[in-house]
Write a structure and sequence with these properties.
- The chain is mainly alpha-helical and about 475 residues long.
- It has one domain.
- The protein has 15 helices and no strands.
- α2 runs antiparallel to α3 and α12 runs parallel beside α14.
- It comes from Pontibacter rugosus.
- This is Multidrug-efflux transporter.
- It is a multi-pass membrane protein.
Length: about 475
Amino acid sequence: MNTDNVSNQGQEASSLSSKMKLILLLAFPAVVENFFQTFIGFVDVYFVSKIGLAEVSAIGATNALLAIYFAVFMAVGVAANVRVANALGAKKVERARHIAQQALILSVLFGIFTGVVTLFFARPLLALMGLEEQVLDIGETYFRIVAIPSVFMSLMFVLSANLRGVGDTRSPMKVSIVINIVHAALGYVLIFGLWVFPEMGVAGAAWATVGSRMLGTLLLLYYIQRSEVLAFRRDYWAVDWGHQKELAKLGSPAAGEVLIMRAGQIVYFGFIVSLGTSVFAAHQIAGNVEVISYMAGYGFATAVTILAGQQIGAGKIEEASSYVKIGAWMAVGLMGVLGTLLFFLGGWAGTLFSEDQEVIAEIGNALKVSGAFQPFLAALLTLTGAYQAANNTKFPMYLTAAGMWAIRTTLVYFLGVYLGWGLTGVWVAIGIDIVFRAGVLAAKFVKGTWMNLEKEPEVESQCHPQSTKETMSACANNY
């Protein structure tokens, strides 16, 4: 199938079965991609757990800070994904191409900025989490290696988002599979040492991650250039402030939502650290296991964002709502099954990472709690994707702020620390926040007040003077 034509199929699909097939067509590659993307972190934690729990805690703390960088990169990706999908739904191909390239300019700038921040402030940022000196030293090494070349992380987020915006979820999936095979092999060799390669420990894990991301960026650029819609045009590299304003307006609340989430996460991570390094390590391990189910939900959220975005761009509001409902229920069903597996097999999963019976028990308890909340997490992820497709990124941001600070962070301290429930209390607090936010998004969706359908802003430089006469004509017809 030509994935550049998915938008046409999305507009033609009408029956329940055809819609489910189309959702699966887009969701399955996204699920596989997300699974392999997650596998990078899983492999790092698995290999590093063989060195020690301090190393696991160091990577976990670093990833909490990297998640703030990811929030910014992801926001640009969300904005690009939605605007590209909206443009294709309205059959404005050149507009889609132009926005996609403008998003890449923004991604490079943010990637360079976060790299510079890491260069000068890596240790002070990690110190904010109250880490023990040994963990702080290890974390600083890992953080610097992985995050100074942040531009590759940023480009991967936005290049993948552009491809998904045109309905191509297969290419990012293929890239994800390749780079994870490379990452796993490099990780083993560089962490433990093999042949002429010395044992590098945590630094080896970091260099393996950087190498795989550089390869991923090159492969995604290859697929972009093969796309009929996204192949680069030289005149579209000039900064277009109209499109940059569009991306910022839609992406800023999405970034704000994740930044609020990550800021709260850093605070309650501090509460977990106060329970002990082994407890924090158990929390990180449980999170790396749970994320397998989490990524399945993200796959369906991706499909919902693409299809709802295209239908909204075409002015078919009822069709957009239909895709959201079907996609959400499919995600709930799948994550319900995965949640059951987490509930019953969580303790066994813990044995893969540690021989400490106390740590294994903590992991098992956390995953039992997590398993019970997976259907609600599925609803939260897919509905958030729907709101983004409807250009409504502000409400999820406000809701995340309320859930994170009024519910999650407060309850993590109250249940986990004050009442002494430990890691089990932490995961109960997380689950309550998930149920709250999923319920509010669902209620607003049912009422039909989930969209923000503002008129598309006029873009001053829709067609550039240096374009050829033929290109100008095509631009005027399709922009």
